[in-house]
Amino acid sequence: MSHTSRSTSRLSPSQLFKRLFVGVSMFGVAYLSFFLFLTFRQRHLIYRPNPDLSMLPSAPDFGLPYEDVWISIPNSPEQLHGWWIPSVVPPEQYAILPQEPMQVLQSPKVMLYLCGVGRNMGDYNYLSRVAAFRQLGFSVLVFDYRGYGRSKGGFPNETQLYEDSQAAWNYLRQVRQVPAEQILIYGESLGGAIALDLALKHPEASGLILQSTFTSMLEAVQQKSFIKTIPIHLVLTEWFESIAKISSLQMPVLFLHGSSDSVVPSEMSQRLYAAAPEPKQLFLIPEADHVSIYQPGDRSYFRAIQRFVETLPP
To answer: What are the structural domain ranges in the chain?
Structure first.
């Protein structure tokens, strides 16, 4: 018998209880610390703002004309930084992917683009989306939420993000004088939850496109295996309950989602689609991931958007 075995066998019941108590206490302290961390720092886990714009629309990969715009937030001294990208005016031609549809609109429309909450609007993938919208014929307003890029403010919360989207809507309606029926709202990832909230407030908009978005923040977080032992519903402050809201939608909606999404399972868009009222469309993109969703040919989201806008009033 080893020395360790002999020592353990000689422990009295009180000593064994003491060791067990210390072990359980250490586990409890670690569990409580993690619980408190989630309570007070969860916004820093959800929102990942980057103050530096890694690319501009005019970058050689995109060659987009743009105008810097500053958007006032009602009842706040803070302003949002955005880019206004005008639609193509003949004889100009613009094609980021020449094999995909170009200039498909029968009348002018503006895409109000609500990005996800990773990095900022200068991200390559977000600018790729903006370029796709312009190729299809849209003018585009894209902006950074408060605390992102050059927008003012600190870490946002759910309510403030809804306010930011409303500020962008106000800018289009009041400053650009864009009729509501010419505005198409596009939300990507968490931006989809923000876009849905805005669409519910403005049923007069032309339509809604939700890409790679989730049913609710609670269900999205519960996808993470390390969270399953935490009663996250007791500490969650950012809810984004799209699945509870979608049945109240009063405009056409298109859902886009990659079947190989490694962040938000495509099943979430399928559930949102099932709960949404008509008219609605669902386009699952084989082998596409969360942000990189382009696939050529029949799998192209360009073509899915084209089919969708063809169903909208001119």
So the answer is: 1-46, 48-310
